Amino acid sequence: MRLIKTLALACAMGLSALAAQASSVLFDNLAADPAAFNFSTNPDGLRLFNLAFSFNGNTVPYGQSFTLDDDTSALEIAALFGSFSGDAVVTASLHSGAGFSSPIATLAAQFVTGPSRDGVLGAFDFSGLGTLSAGVYTVFFSGSGALGGSTVEAIGPNQYVGLDTPGTEAYGRFGLYNFATNPARDFGIRVSGTADASPVPLPAGLPLLLAGLGAIALVRRRAARA
């Protein structure tokens, strides 16, 4: 009897696990060190990109692509922001596909940063969009603040290597972002949400197994009473 109960409980727990869904981090290439870059005291520090004007032939807004492997709800996108004067007032727009297109949604937020070149994590809640289909998206940022790049490591005196994350690209308004001599290779973002993965099909014999366990339990209960 104890074995039957254990098997039934295990089956029930398995079914519950299939149904359970929770928000999780789906993509993250944020800079490992959010403190401001400094040649002598913090060479691995955060590189900032001014969102207020174009630079190196790049045209604002600046963005980073990412891929949703499954249909996803409760989408939230965060990045590190700094400011060269006052607070960072940033607008984030979500675009379908790689690069700049007609935005799906646009959100604005203000982050208290200083002025400070240290990165402050700011998040944008796109959950109002409901469930987004699996595919490639690009989030663009504009405003009065500065956007943090992804991780850069110092490998020698005035020598740096930027993390170039596979499967994602940095963009300006009119194409791929040109980092030129800046060692950063991406803008840092963190994408969170609830992946609505397709449920795993139940084994064909599972309902019969559960029915059989129930029948055995009933027979043993009657035998015990007799």
Description:
The protein is of the alpha+beta class. The protein is built from two helices and 14 strands. Strands 1, 2, 4, 7, 9 and 14 form a six-stranded antiparallel β-sheet that branches. α1 runs antiparallel to α2. The longest helix has 20 residues. The radius of gyration is 25 Å and the shape is globular.
Oligomer status = single chain
Summed over residues and divided by their number, the pLDDT gives a mean of 86
The class by helix and strand makeup works out as alpha+beta
The whole-angstrom Rg is 25 Å
The first-level CATH class name: Mainly Beta
**Number of discrete helical segments:** 2
Shape designation: globular
Beta-strand percentage range: 35-45%
Low-confidence stretches: 6-13, 15-19
Tell me how many strands there are: 14
What is the terminal separation in angstroms?
16 Å
The succession of helices and strands, N to C, reads HEEEEEEEEEEEEEEH
Q: Sketch the major β-sheet.
A: 6 strands, antiparallel
Q: CATH architecture, please?
A: Sandwich
The amount of helix comes to 10-25%
Classify the fold: give the CATH topology.
Jelly Rolls
How many distinct folded domains?
1
